[in-house]
Amino acid sequence: MKALVTGGAGFIGSTLTDRLLADGHEVVVYDNFSTGRALFLAQARRHAGFHLVRGDTLDDDALRAAMRGCDIVFHLAANADVRYGTLHPRKDFEQNTVATFNVLEAMRDTGVRRIVFASTGSIYGEPRVFPTPEDAPFPVQTSLYGASKLACEGLIEAYCEGYGIQGYIFRLVSILGERYTHGHVFDFYKALRCDCTRLRVLGDGHQRKSYLYVHDCIEGMLCALARAQERINIFNLGRDDYCEVNDSVRWICEALGVQPELEYTGGPRGWVGDSPFIFLDCRKIRQLGWTPQVSIREGVLRTLAYLQAHAELLEERA
Ligand SMILES: NC(=O)c1ccc[n+]([C@@H]2O[C@H](COP(=O)([O-])OP(=O)(O)OC[C@H]3O[C@@H](n4cnc5c(N)ncnc54)[C@H](O)[C@@H]3O)[C@@H](O)[C@H]2O)c1
């Protein structure tokens, strides 16, 4: 199989790329390196089946050229940070929705017939059903990120229906693990390196979140790809448990041997669009035989250990 991985230099995309190459597939990474890192592709570069195209998903011609000859597209390139949508609403729309439209148009032009899309549990807004199944009553959108991703899902479904494409949509909880460069573990570790006596926590710390380890996430995607054969395949990908942000703070502080004074910004949400409770019902994908292997606590600790070993990742974003 020859795969195009948009966002293949990013956290999840580079880990997926390594896995596809290890499984004997050919991979074209398409990335503009806005948040991706050359470091993450060091392992991939050693494979003869690896190709890198430095390009933007908003550049139709380059995208089409990179896609030619591929059997499948893993579309992971996006503005992946949910927190700042209200500061730049156009960014989510362009980088996520318009970019996905471009990917689908390039597929139509080049005859690629399968797409895997990294969607998000944020599309459920603040759901009323927990754990939240794929067919939960549809709520109000609370973030521009979630809204842009839901629009992507709609486009993918319509292209599947209209042009005979097969789609795999994965609604991910927050992902943890090696090469992680955005999210609460990153922010807490970075802050504690500067000042280990105090730590600012967004919200009241009681937000409940389900986190999934990156290799479990990729295993789930590949499991569904092999075993689910509907035209449109939609799966939640998360764990059957959750923790409070305060739990994660405690694990991180214990691992670092620090006891900061915690300063809460207050309220049940950390930012506009933060969902105080994310807990997805993952029975559908579990029925295919997938089981996550790494606990939330272990995922937090592995993420922290990786960041400690790669402090340059913290500096670059300063
Ligand atoms: N990490 C999570 O917790 C999480 C949760 C739910 C969904 N997702 C989704 O998974 C995907 C990957 O997320 P990630 O955490 O690896 O993020 P990331 O920021 O590490 O990776 C995104 C990659 O896309 C590239 N990119 C961004 N805009 C581009 C553009 N216009 N053209 C070409 N390349 C571009 C970046 O350089 C980067 O390499 C995203 O679609 C994200 O929305 C991530």
Please describe the structure with a list of short key phrases separated by commas or semicolons.
318 residues; single chain; 10 helices; seven-stranded parallel beta sheet; binds nicotinamide-adenine-dinucleotide; Rossmann fold; 14 strands; UDP-galactose 4-epimerase, domain 1
What does this structure look like?
The longest helix has 22 residues. The mean pLDDT is 96. The protein folds into two domains: 200 residues, 3-Layer(aba) Sandwich (Rossmann fold), CATH 3.40.50; 95 residues, UDP-galactose 4-epimerase, domain 1. The strands form four sheets. It has a seven-stranded parallel sheet with strand order 3-2-1-4-5-6-11, sandwiched between helices. α1 links the parallel β1 and β2. Helix content is 38%, strand content 19%. With 318 residues, the chain is α/β, with parallel strands linked by helices. The site of nicotinamide-adenine-dinucleotide has 28 residues, from α1, α3, β5 and β7.
